[in-house]
Design a protein that fits this description.
It is a single chain. By secondary structure, the chain is an alpha/beta fold. Helix content is 46%, strand content 15%. A seven-stranded parallel sheet has the order 3-2-1-4-5-6-7, sandwiched between helices. The radius of gyration is 17 Å and the shape is globular. The structure holds NADPH dihydro-nicotinamide-adenine-dinucleotide phosphate. NADPH dihydro-nicotinamide-adenine-dinucleotide phosphate binds at residues 9, 11-15, 33-36, 60-62, 87-90, 110, 138, 140, 183, 185-186, 188-191.
């Protein structure tokens, strides 16, 4: 089908699962990583085994200049993307009185500025394709409800929802949809320090989610059949909110 999708932060965690899930659906992938080239190369290998093409891009999503240079260059050489999944993100949690300026800045620069830094170089070439396009962002239950210890992360993830909805308005008439997936608690490295017994008590489904359940929601927004769905937030959270 020759539709290429960039997934940020796809060397591991939810991003990796999203990339493999999309490859299984017949998309070609651009695998993005910041630090773990071996893991990123392994993802490319697994996608090639599914007979889909994949290439690697490395950049720090909080570095505006680097994002612009590398993404512009990739688009010039390989053409504009059909889709983008803004998945890469970080947490740096602490109770608000203990939250340092660095905790605040790193989470906002990565999660929220990353929205601008990654999408700004991508959107105009996507418009110029004159074909349907798809943008999916990753927020979090924390951005919808607010979460203690995550004032920085809740702010960034709520900001992503606002930015997603506003961009959806701008791009709707261009046949480009912009939607958001908001996971609840999903089993990845981001969760390693949390006690699962305590967590599952507050989740109506009585369990944490798995990355494939997030990937399925992303893949739905990416599909041709979802062309009339834009400016939406889809929670994948076992009924948490
Ligand atoms: P992980 O911590 O497992 O992976 C994060 C990914 O983001 C890694 O690939 C990492 O790359 C990349 N990344 C982090 N910072 C940067 C940066 N500055 N520049 C480029 N890449 C970066 O996270 P998850 O897979 O759990 O989370 C994926 C998304 O889902 C995030 O947006 C997260 O906020 C969201 N989410 C996760 C939930 C969960 O329970 N796990 C719940 C709700 C939302 P590298 O390895 O190179 O650092």
């Amino acid at each position: 089908m020759n539709k290429t999708i960039l997934v940020t932060g796809s060397s591991r965690g939810i991003g990796k699962t999203i990339a493999l899930y999309l490859a299984n659906k017949g998309y070609d992938l651009v695998i993005h990583y910041r630090s773990q080239i071996d893991q990123a190369q392994e993802v490319v290998k697994q996608i090639n085994q599914l007979e889909q093409s994949a290439r690697l891009l490395q950049f720090d999503i909080s570095d505006r200049k680097q994002c612009a240079e590398i993404i512009n260059n990739d688009i010039q050489v390989n053409g504009a993307y059909y889709g983008v999944v803004c998945n890469a993100g970080v947490i740096s949690d602490n109770a608000f009185p203990l939250l340092t300026g660095e905790d605040w800045d790193s989470v906002i620069h990565t999660n929220l500025d990353g929205f601008y830094n990654v999408l700004h170089p991508i959107v105009m070439p996507m418009i110029m394709r004159h074909k349907p396009g798809r943008i999916v962002t990753l927020s979090s239950v924390s951005g919808i409800m607010g979460n203690r210890g995550q004032v920085n992360y809740s702010a960034a993830k709520a900001g992503i929802i606002g930015a997603t909805k506003a961009l959806a308005l701008e791009l709707a008439k261009r046949n480009i949809t912009v939607n958001c997936v908001a996971p609840g608690l999903i089993e990845t490295e981001m969760m390693v320090n949390l006690s699962q017994d305590e967590i599952t008590k507050i989740i109506p489904a009585q369990r944490v989610g798995n990355p494939k359940e997030v990937a399925a929601a992303v893949a739905f927004f990416m599909s041709e059949d979802a062309g009339y769905i834009t400016r939406q937030v889809l929670s994948v959270n076992g009924g948490l909110c």
